[in-house]
Sequence to fold (430 residues):
Amino acid sequence: MKILKIGEESFDRYLSGVESRIAEDPLRLEGKVRSILKNVRKRGDEAVLRYTQQFDNVRLTLSQLEVKREEVKEARKRIPRDFLETLKKASHRIRRFHQLAKKRWMVKWIEEGIRIEQIVKPLERVGIYVPGGKASYPSTVLMAAIPAKVAGVKEIIITTPPHQKGISPAVLVAADLAGVDRIFRAGGVQAIGALAYGTKSIPKVDKIVGPGNRYVAIAKRLVYGSVDLDMVAGPSEIVIISDGKTPPAFVAADLISQAEHDERALSILITPSESFARKVEEEVLRQLLTLKREKIAHKSLRQRGAILIVKDLNQAIELANRIAPEHLELSVKNPLRLAKSVKHAGAIFLGPHTPEAIGDYLAGPNHILPTSGTARFASALSVDDFQKKINLMQFSEKALRRFEGDVKRFTEWEGLEGHYRSIRVRTERE
Fold:
């Protein structure tokens, strides 16, 4: 990892690169993605099966595209009993959190002759993309499907890349625990296209959620408008702010926990202590030696990771707000006080005993979070993402008359005579 001091040219150059990371996806990939989406839209299942064989090296028949209920039930026998209990515990905690977070809207504005209300309706059908490239992610299934179920979504569909050995049994069990209705063996751009446009086998959805690689992210961006999206996710990120009093092994382990996701993951430590920075650097190298995904993590940390040395914790928070990271750990003496200064982060983890990994699995809040600096304006996936709000208005004739003059002035200013006529025709007396 690079160790950079504030005030150095290399420090500013690195920070500028981090801030502009949202624009990293090369435009050259868009042409390929557009071509796949076009073929899926035109040829449907035929294109999905062809691309599945081409990109996943799995040859499927049309009857094999959808996972049968018997396969889901059988999956429970294929995972250890203790892990099944862990999945149940995680699903309970995630469901409980989202039930607590669910908003209940009430009529708040009733006056003489007027009723103003906002009603909430769940989306009808949602598609969840579950990655399956470099790892299996049952936790993503729980995090995406449970809030959709709590919101009242009628039909929840999963697409996930197939493998020669089949779909991970843990993914199938997690889907069953979360209340998923249908599962399809399809991944990559072709799965996004199928969910967005619909095929004979895979129905068109109202919204697509879930993370994926660069091609999936580009595909999601390109189909937006045909469907809604949760977000266009980038590589995983973590920023750790430490006062130098946390055991270096803790911080090193947390930096590695993000780096092992992907070579493009972003792991940053910000600290005012140079001696602590050196100890963390040494600890990172030591821990990498025994990591199964050492090559991925090492490349990520070497190319994109950094330890930033600043003057104090206030300056550290300023930098964190500029980066707007997906995950922000405040590994300091009084993390709650420091958290009050955080403006932009997907999720905040307080104190030395709250590693980001606990949020990935069992804490309860969602781990599908805004990346690439979008935490400046975006939030974690929640029940709200699976609901839509409809405004409801009712005026009596007497109430409409009270606003006639105001509407007339607006329409005269904007040159929309027909708007005023629609009021006048109801208020004029014979």
